[in-house]
């Protein structure tokens, strides 16, 4: 069900003006305060597919990953990625660690997570432990990891994934990478030249000022998308989990973004952008997502 207005004064608009989101679960939160603007089954525990990889990125950054260091792709990386989408990181090739972050976050290459973990001094089990540690640090009680790639069993909620992306985007390196639409990666020997274009179609479309995000898909998770966008210098973080179609998650983003542009009628709280464009009401927040 859609979570409608809860408690306190709010917009003098009917709840039917909320965006019609098709994804199974979704949320939009104020990046500054964490206040929830919109939610649909936002606390339902669901598989999260490759959106998992933002936790890999935060874990290896916390461990002090040498961005300019080089790491070879091994049989361990191939084994851990088995069952996932096609890779472009061939066995034996060596890549700069920052480029492995790009491969992981821009196009979700499943050989990158364990390679990055190894570069930061962690085997796959230790990397999973570190990812669960990040979730614990962020007080994400419904987020659990069993593998680094997102192919097998990782779960969270739309709310907790939005909180996690909000944290990841505080890292300038991760923010830069997730905000890139295109990058060329080269192996150390120069033999491999890989052209990466982001899977974040909302970023490429440029209809809205998208800051960055991550996509994901497995049969169990459906199509997932976490992202952040700027509305008149005001940032909103969104998560869409469990969409039936590949394009549905991006259409959901467009619907929520358009709703925010209209002043978020029916929102739990008013964004600062909405306050400027709407009648002056005493709008009080019903709470924040950081519990």
Please tell me about this protein's structure:
- The structure is a single chain.
- With 291 residues, the chain is of the alpha+beta class.
- It has one domain (2-277): Beta-lactamase, CATH 3.40.710.10.
- 31% of the residues lie in helices and 22% in strands.
- It has ten helices and twelve strands.
- The chain has helices spanning 53-62, 75-80, 97-106, 112-119, 124-137, 158-168, 172-178, 201-205, 248-261, 272-277; strands spanning 2-3, 25-30, 36-40, 46-47, 70-72, 94-96, 155-156, 182-186, 193-197, 209-218, 222-231, 234-243.
- The strands form four sheets. It has a six-stranded antiparallel β-sheet, with helices on both faces. A two-stranded antiparallel sheet has the order 4-7.
- Helix 1 (53-62) packs parallel to helix 4 (112-119) and helix 1 (53-62) crosses helix 5.
- It is globular.
- Residues 1-15 and 273-291 have low confidence and may be disordered.
């Amino acid at each position: 069900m859609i979570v409608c207005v809860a408690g306190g004064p709010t917009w003098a608009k009917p709840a039917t003006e909320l965006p019609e989101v098709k994804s199974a679960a979704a949320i939009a939160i104020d990046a500054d305060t964490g206040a929830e603007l919109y939610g649909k089954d936002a606390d339902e525990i669901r598989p999260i597919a490759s959106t998992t990889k933002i936790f890999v990125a935060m874990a290896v950054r916390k461990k002090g990953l040498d961005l300019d260091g080089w790491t070879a792709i091994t049989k361990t990386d191939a084994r851990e990625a088995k069952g996932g989408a096609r890779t472009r990181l061939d066995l034996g090739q060596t890549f700069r660690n920052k480029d492995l972050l790009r491969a992981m976050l821009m196009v979700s290459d499943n050989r990158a997570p364990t390679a990055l973990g190894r570069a930061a001094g962690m085997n796959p089990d230790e990397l999973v432990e570190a990812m669960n540690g990040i979730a614990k640090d962020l007080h994400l009680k419904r987020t659990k990891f069993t593998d680094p790639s997102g192919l097998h069993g990782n779960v969270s909620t739309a709310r907790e994934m939005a909180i996690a992306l909000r944290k990841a985007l505080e890292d300038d390196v991760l923010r830069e990478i997730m905000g890139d639409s295109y990058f060329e990666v080269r192996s150390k020997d120069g033999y491999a030249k890989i052209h990466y274009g982001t899977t974040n179609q909302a970023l490429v479309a440029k209809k809205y000022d998208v800051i960055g995000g991550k996509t994901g898909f497995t049969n169990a998770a459906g199509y997932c998308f976490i992202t952040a966008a700027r509305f008149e210098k005001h940032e909103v973080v969104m998560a869409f989990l469990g969409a039936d179609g590949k394009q549905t998650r991006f259409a959901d983003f467009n619907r929520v973004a358009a709703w925010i542009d209209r002043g978020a009628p029916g929102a739990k709280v008013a964004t600062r952008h909405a306050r400027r464009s709407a009648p002056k009401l005493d709008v009080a927040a019903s709470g924040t997502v950081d519990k």
